[in-house]
Amino acid sequence: MISNRTKFIASFVLVLIGVHAIAEDLEPLDWEELSKTSPWVYTEVNRDVPVVAPGKQNAAPSDAVVLFDGSDLSSWEKTPFGEGVRMDRTEHFLKNYKGGASLGPAAWGVENGEIVAGMKQGAIASKQAFGDMQLHIEWQVPVLEDKQGQEYGNSGIFLMGLYEIQVLNSYQNETYSNGQAAAIYKQHVPLVNASRAPGNWQTYDILFTAPRFSEKGSVISPALVTILHNGVLVQHNAVLQGPTSFIGEPYYVPHPAKLPIVLQDHDNPVRYRNIWVREL
Ligand code: MG
What we know:
The chain has helices at residues 4-23, 31-37, 87-96; strands at residues 65-68, 76-78, 109-111, 114-116, 124-130, 133-140, 155-159, 163-167, 201-209, 212-213, 219-221, 224-229, 232-239, 259-263, 271-279. By secondary structure, it is of the alpha+beta class. The chain has one domain (65-279): Exo-inulinase, domain 1 (Jelly Rolls), CATH 2.60.120. A hairpin with a 2-residue loop joins strand 12 (224-229) and strand 13 (232-239). The longest helix is centred in the N-terminal third of the chain and has 20 residues, at 4-23. The protein is globular, with a radius of gyration of 25 Å. 33% of the residues are buried. The protein binds magnesium ion (MG).
Protein backbone atom coordinates (compact mmCIF):
# COMPACT_ATOMS: atom_id res chain seq x y z
CA MET A 1 0.00 0.00 0.00
CA ILE A 2 1.38 3.43 -0.98
CA SER A 3 1.31 5.94 1.86
CA ASN A 4 0.00 9.49 1.47
CA ARG A 5 3.49 10.78 2.20
CA THR A 6 4.90 8.71 -0.70
CA LYS A 7 2.15 9.97 -3.00
CA PHE A 8 2.95 13.57 -2.01
CA ILE A 9 6.69 13.16 -2.69
CA ALA A 10 5.95 11.43 -5.99
CA SER A 11 3.65 14.24 -7.17
CA PHE A 12 6.21 16.87 -6.09
CA VAL A 13 8.92 15.16 -8.14
CA LEU A 14 6.57 14.97 -11.16
CA VAL A 15 5.89 18.72 -10.91
CA LEU A 16 9.63 19.45 -10.79
CA ILE A 17 10.22 17.28 -13.85
CA GLY A 18 7.37 19.10 -15.62
CA VAL A 19 8.73 22.55 -14.83
CA HIS A 20 12.17 21.51 -15.99
CA ALA A 21 10.76 20.12 -19.23
CA ILE A 22 8.93 23.39 -19.98
CA ALA A 23 11.94 25.56 -19.13
CA GLU A 24 14.73 23.46 -20.64
CA ASP A 25 14.77 25.35 -23.95
CA LEU A 26 14.81 28.78 -22.23
CA GLU A 27 17.89 30.53 -20.89
CA PRO A 28 17.65 31.21 -17.16
CA LEU A 29 16.80 34.83 -16.31
CA ASP A 30 19.96 36.90 -15.82
CA TRP A 31 18.96 38.79 -12.71
CA GLU A 32 22.27 40.54 -12.39
CA GLU A 33 21.90 42.01 -15.88
CA LEU A 34 18.20 42.85 -15.37
CA SER A 35 18.86 44.62 -12.10
CA LYS A 36 21.16 47.11 -13.86
CA THR A 37 18.13 48.73 -15.53
CA SER A 38 15.22 47.45 -13.36
CA PRO A 39 12.87 47.32 -16.39
CA TRP A 40 9.93 46.23 -14.22
CA VAL A 41 9.57 49.73 -12.78
CA TYR A 42 8.19 51.10 -16.07
CA THR A 43 4.90 49.23 -15.65
CA GLU A 44 4.47 50.05 -11.98
CA VAL A 45 1.77 52.64 -11.23
CA ASN A 46 2.14 54.88 -8.22
CA ARG A 47 -0.77 57.03 -7.20
CA ASP A 48 -2.61 57.64 -3.96
CA VAL A 49 -5.37 55.07 -3.39
CA PRO A 50 -7.93 56.50 -0.96
CA VAL A 51 -8.13 54.64 2.32
CA VAL A 52 -11.68 53.62 3.18
CA ALA A 53 -12.72 52.06 6.46
CA PRO A 54 -15.31 49.37 5.67
CA GLY A 55 -18.48 49.36 7.74
CA LYS A 56 -19.54 46.43 9.87
CA GLN A 57 -22.34 44.19 8.57
CA ASN A 58 -23.44 46.36 5.65
CA ALA A 59 -22.94 49.60 7.58
CA ALA A 60 -21.83 52.54 5.46
CA PRO A 61 -18.09 52.70 4.77
CA SER A 62 -16.25 55.89 5.65
CA ASP A 63 -16.60 57.60 2.25
CA ALA A 64 -20.31 56.90 1.65
CA VAL A 65 -23.15 59.38 1.31
CA VAL A 66 -25.70 58.11 3.82
CA LEU A 67 -29.24 58.61 2.51
CA PHE A 68 -31.02 56.90 5.40
CA ASP A 69 -29.50 55.89 8.73
CA GLY A 70 -32.72 55.11 10.56
CA SER A 71 -33.45 58.60 11.81
CA ASP A 72 -35.49 60.66 9.33
CA LEU A 73 -36.28 61.41 5.68
CA SER A 74 -34.38 64.70 5.54
CA SER A 75 -32.35 63.43 2.54
CA TRP A 76 -35.53 62.71 0.56
CA GLU A 77 -38.36 64.63 -1.09
CA LYS A 78 -41.50 64.01 -3.06
CA THR A 79 -40.86 63.79 -6.79
CA PRO A 80 -42.46 63.41 -10.21
CA PHE A 81 -39.63 61.02 -11.22
CA GLY A 82 -40.19 57.30 -11.11
CA GLU A 83 -43.42 57.21 -13.06
CA GLY A 84 -42.07 54.76 -15.63
CA VAL A 85 -45.27 54.37 -17.60
CA ARG A 86 -44.40 54.74 -21.25
CA MET A 87 -41.64 56.36 -23.23
CA ASP A 88 -43.63 59.23 -24.72
CA ARG A 89 -44.45 60.45 -21.20
CA THR A 90 -40.84 59.95 -20.04
CA GLU A 91 -39.57 61.80 -23.11
CA HIS A 92 -41.97 64.69 -22.50
CA PHE A 93 -40.96 64.83 -18.83
CA LEU A 94 -37.21 64.83 -19.54
CA LYS A 95 -37.46 67.41 -22.33
CA ASN A 96 -39.22 69.77 -19.93
CA TYR A 97 -37.06 68.90 -16.91
CA LYS A 98 -35.05 71.87 -15.74
CA GLY A 99 -33.90 70.43 -12.41
CA GLY A 100 -35.40 71.09 -9.00
CA ALA A 101 -38.50 68.97 -9.60
CA SER A 102 -39.37 68.54 -5.92
CA LEU A 103 -43.05 68.35 -5.05
CA GLY A 104 -42.36 69.04 -1.35
CA PRO A 105 -41.19 66.98 1.64
CA ALA A 106 -41.18 63.17 1.47
CA ALA A 107 -44.52 62.03 2.88
CA TRP A 108 -43.50 58.45 3.76
CA GLY A 109 -43.21 57.32 7.37
CA VAL A 110 -40.32 56.23 9.59
CA GLU A 111 -40.91 53.49 12.20
CA ASN A 112 -38.32 51.61 14.27
CA GLY A 113 -35.54 53.08 12.13
CA GLU A 114 -37.19 51.88 8.92
CA ILE A 115 -38.75 53.79 6.03
CA VAL A 116 -42.37 52.77 5.48
CA ALA A 117 -43.48 53.26 1.89
CA GLY A 118 -46.18 55.89 1.67
CA MET A 119 -49.03 54.11 -0.04
CA LYS A 120 -50.63 56.41 -2.65
CA GLN A 121 -48.45 59.30 -1.46
CA GLY A 122 -46.18 59.25 -4.50
CA ALA A 123 -42.55 58.35 -5.12
CA ILE A 124 -39.74 59.87 -3.08
CA ALA A 125 -36.35 60.95 -4.43
CA SER A 126 -32.97 61.56 -2.90
CA LYS A 127 -32.33 65.31 -2.70
CA GLN A 128 -28.81 64.65 -3.94
CA ALA A 129 -28.37 63.57 -7.55
CA PHE A 130 -26.07 60.72 -8.55
CA GLY A 131 -24.54 59.29 -11.72
CA ASP A 132 -22.06 56.41 -11.50
CA MET A 133 -22.46 54.81 -8.10
CA GLN A 134 -22.28 51.91 -5.69
CA LEU A 135 -25.64 51.75 -3.92
CA HIS A 136 -26.45 49.67 -0.85
CA ILE A 137 -30.09 49.41 0.14
CA GLU A 138 -32.07 47.03 2.34
CA TRP A 139 -35.75 46.25 1.91
CA GLN A 140 -38.44 44.09 3.38
CA VAL A 141 -41.84 42.93 2.21
CA PRO A 142 -44.13 42.02 5.12
CA VAL A 143 -46.13 38.77 5.07
CA LEU A 144 -49.34 39.55 3.17
CA GLU A 145 -51.48 36.40 2.98
CA ASP A 146 -53.99 37.78 0.50
CA LYS A 147 -51.49 39.18 -2.04
CA GLN A 148 -49.85 37.60 -5.07
CA GLY A 149 -47.96 38.42 -8.28
CA GLN A 150 -47.14 42.08 -8.85
CA GLU A 151 -49.32 43.08 -5.90
CA TYR A 152 -47.17 41.25 -3.31
CA GLY A 153 -44.70 43.86 -2.08
CA ASN A 154 -44.19 45.90 -5.22
CA SER A 155 -41.90 48.90 -5.02
CA GLY A 156 -38.75 49.70 -6.92
CA ILE A 157 -35.47 51.53 -6.90
CA PHE A 158 -35.19 53.87 -9.86
CA LEU A 159 -31.54 54.70 -10.52
CA MET A 160 -31.45 58.26 -11.88
CA GLY A 161 -35.22 58.22 -11.48
CA LEU A 162 -35.43 56.30 -14.77
CA TYR A 163 -33.92 52.82 -14.47
CA GLU A 164 -35.90 50.56 -12.13
CA ILE A 165 -34.48 47.66 -10.14
CA GLN A 166 -37.64 45.79 -9.16
CA VAL A 167 -38.56 45.31 -5.51
CA LEU A 168 -41.14 42.55 -5.02
CA ASN A 169 -41.69 39.44 -2.96
CA SER A 170 -40.38 36.75 -5.33
CA TYR A 171 -40.22 33.96 -2.74
CA GLN A 172 -42.76 31.39 -3.91
CA ASN A 173 -44.66 34.13 -5.69
CA GLU A 174 -45.18 33.74 -9.45
CA THR A 175 -45.01 36.66 -11.83
CA TYR A 176 -43.44 37.46 -15.20
CA SER A 177 -39.69 36.90 -14.86
CA ASN A 178 -38.55 40.30 -16.11
CA GLY A 179 -40.75 41.81 -13.42
CA GLN A 180 -39.65 39.73 -10.41
CA ALA A 181 -37.31 40.89 -7.65
CA ALA A 182 -33.89 42.03 -8.91
CA ALA A 183 -35.13 42.27 -12.49
CA ILE A 184 -34.10 45.40 -14.33
CA TYR A 185 -37.72 46.03 -15.01
CA LYS A 186 -38.90 44.57 -18.36
CA GLN A 187 -35.32 44.50 -19.66
CA HIS A 188 -33.24 41.92 -17.76
CA VAL A 189 -34.41 38.80 -15.93
CA PRO A 190 -32.22 38.12 -12.84
CA LEU A 191 -29.63 35.34 -13.32
CA VAL A 192 -31.04 33.51 -10.28
CA ASN A 193 -33.79 34.07 -7.73
CA ALA A 194 -31.98 34.85 -4.45
CA SER A 195 -35.12 36.02 -2.62
CA ARG A 196 -35.73 35.57 1.08
CA ALA A 197 -39.20 34.88 2.41
CA PRO A 198 -41.49 37.82 3.23
CA GLY A 199 -40.82 39.31 6.65
CA ASN A 200 -37.03 39.05 6.20
CA TRP A 201 -34.69 41.89 5.35
CA GLN A 202 -32.98 41.66 1.96
CA THR A 203 -30.05 43.55 0.50
CA TYR A 204 -29.26 44.96 -2.90
CA ASP A 205 -25.72 46.04 -3.68
CA ILE A 206 -25.89 47.80 -7.01
CA LEU A 207 -23.04 48.99 -9.25
CA PHE A 208 -24.29 51.47 -11.80
CA THR A 209 -22.62 53.16 -14.73
CA ALA A 210 -24.73 56.02 -16.04
CA PRO A 211 -25.32 56.40 -19.78
CA ARG A 212 -23.26 58.98 -21.65
CA PHE A 213 -24.74 61.26 -24.27
CA SER A 214 -23.09 63.44 -26.89
CA GLU A 215 -23.83 67.17 -26.98
CA LYS A 216 -26.32 66.47 -29.75
CA GLY A 217 -28.04 63.87 -27.57
CA SER A 218 -26.94 60.61 -29.19
CA VAL A 219 -25.92 57.70 -26.93
CA ILE A 220 -22.15 57.41 -26.53
CA SER A 221 -22.46 54.51 -24.06
CA PRO A 222 -25.54 52.88 -22.49
CA ALA A 223 -26.22 52.43 -18.77
CA LEU A 224 -24.68 49.30 -17.17
CA VAL A 225 -25.92 47.58 -14.02
CA THR A 226 -24.46 44.85 -11.80
CA ILE A 227 -26.49 43.68 -8.78
CA LEU A 228 -25.85 41.43 -5.79
CA HIS A 229 -29.12 40.33 -4.17
CA ASN A 230 -28.50 39.06 -0.64
CA GLY A 231 -24.85 38.72 -1.67
CA VAL A 232 -25.64 36.66 -4.81
CA LEU A 233 -24.81 37.96 -8.29
CA VAL A 234 -28.12 38.44 -10.11
CA GLN A 235 -27.26 41.02 -12.80
CA HIS A 236 -23.79 41.13 -14.34
CA ASN A 237 -22.97 44.22 -16.38
CA ALA A 238 -26.47 44.25 -17.84
CA VAL A 239 -26.81 46.75 -20.70
CA LEU A 240 -29.91 48.92 -20.48
CA GLN A 241 -31.92 49.77 -23.57
CA GLY A 242 -33.24 52.99 -22.06
CA PRO A 243 -35.56 53.87 -19.16
CA THR A 244 -37.46 50.88 -17.76
CA SER A 245 -40.73 51.60 -19.49
CA PHE A 246 -43.85 49.82 -18.23
CA ILE A 247 -45.61 49.97 -21.61
CA GLY A 248 -43.86 49.64 -24.96
CA GLU A 249 -40.25 49.51 -26.09
CA PRO A 250 -37.67 51.64 -24.26
CA TYR A 251 -35.25 54.05 -25.92
CA TYR A 252 -32.78 56.57 -24.59
CA VAL A 253 -33.68 60.19 -24.04
CA PRO A 254 -30.69 62.40 -23.16
CA HIS A 255 -30.62 63.60 -19.58
CA PRO A 256 -28.26 65.23 -17.05
CA ALA A 257 -25.17 63.36 -15.86
CA LYS A 258 -26.64 63.11 -12.36
CA LEU A 259 -30.25 62.54 -11.27
CA PRO A 260 -31.87 61.43 -7.99
CA ILE A 261 -32.41 57.90 -6.73
CA VAL A 262 -36.15 57.29 -6.52
CA LEU A 263 -38.15 54.82 -4.42
CA GLN A 264 -41.41 53.76 -6.02
CA ASP A 265 -44.82 54.04 -4.38
CA HIS A 266 -46.76 51.11 -5.84
CA ASP A 267 -49.41 51.25 -3.13
CA ASN A 268 -47.72 48.30 -1.36
CA PRO A 269 -46.41 48.38 2.27
CA VAL A 270 -42.70 47.87 1.59
CA ARG A 271 -39.99 48.95 4.05
CA TYR A 272 -36.46 50.24 3.48
CA ARG A 273 -33.46 50.82 5.73
CA ASN A 274 -29.70 51.41 5.68
CA ILE A 275 -29.32 53.26 2.38
CA TRP A 276 -25.94 54.56 1.33
CA VAL A 277 -24.15 55.50 -1.86
CA ARG A 278 -20.55 55.69 -2.89
CA GLU A 279 -20.10 57.98 -5.87
CA LEU A 280 -17.78 56.51 -8.49
MG1 MG B 1 -41.91 48.12 -9.03
